[in-house]
Amino acid sequence: MIVLALLGGFGYLGLKYLTPDYYFTLYPLIPVFFTLLLTSIYFTLVFIKKRKAAIDMKTYTILRTVKFTLCLLLVFLYCTIVGHNTMSFAIVFMVFYMIALSFESWLFLKIFR
Prior knowledge:
The protein is mainly α.
């Protein structure tokens, strides 16, 4: 979570001051979205682990599918409602998605093995 906050801060500074043409006003939505999403996934996994002895791949795959669907929905809503700087939004969103995916995989392997 701290990594996402730091990346969000550096990304804000980079987009706002180094490349202001690519900055979009809803940029803070991306780090907040992924922080809330990863937090909810973490607590869901903890809750499931307390109720079951182990977390199976089916449960983890379902969580990943829900995450992917929510991400697609957010990108779609941004592109249809806002409609400007969509390429900047998509690239920044993809970077955050990959970092969150890496963190989520590490978390699953470390804690729920």
